[in-house]
Task: inverse folding
């Protein structure tokens, strides 16, 4: 379990590099760091449990049980906090994404990140392709289209025009 959590934490930290423009909060990597710390603690606790079982130590097994109960209480608390603050996280991420989409011009680094995000997640805009109609880029191009990164990958001749939404 500790190895699995370590992998998940490292994967999240590695993936963050691709999406860091959308997560401007300085605490965005905190959950991944906590996951890695929990993995280390779980490994140590597992060793304590194994040693206590091997030696048949009542004190060691009692300590192991107490630690497991504390971890269970912490997990329940984390679940409750995640449930309570899920809407705040959602609105914060959407607000940050909207600000990045507003900076889109097709050339700068933010534009590259937006294109990468839309291609990797097979999406268009924050909620859907109509989000582009309010951006400065959409109004400046004047061709009533969205970026080509919004096009479905199986569409070869996609132009990004809004009058052909089946291609987006």
Result:
């Amino acid at each position: 379990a500790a190895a699995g959590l370590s992998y998940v934490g490292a994967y999240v930290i590695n993936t963050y590099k691709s999406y860091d423009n959308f997560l401007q909060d300085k605490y965005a990597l905190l959950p991944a760091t906590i996951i890695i710390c929990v993995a280390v603690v779980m490994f140590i606790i597992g060793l304590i449990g194994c040693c206590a079982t091997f030696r048949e130590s009542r004190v060691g097994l009692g300590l192991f049980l107490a630690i497991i109960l504390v971890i269970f209480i912490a997990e329940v608390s984390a679940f409750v906090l995640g449930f309570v603050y899920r809407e705040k996280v959602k609105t914060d991420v959407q607000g940050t994404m909207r600000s990045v989409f507003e900076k889109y011009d097709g050339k700068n680094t933010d534009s590259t990140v937006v294109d990468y995000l839309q291609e990797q997640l097979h999406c268009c805009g924050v909620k859907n392709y109509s989000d582009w109609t309010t951006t400065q880029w959409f109004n400046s191009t004047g061709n009533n289209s969205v970026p080509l990164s919004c096009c479905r990958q199986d569409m070869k001749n996609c132009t990004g025009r809004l009058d052909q939404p089946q291609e987006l």
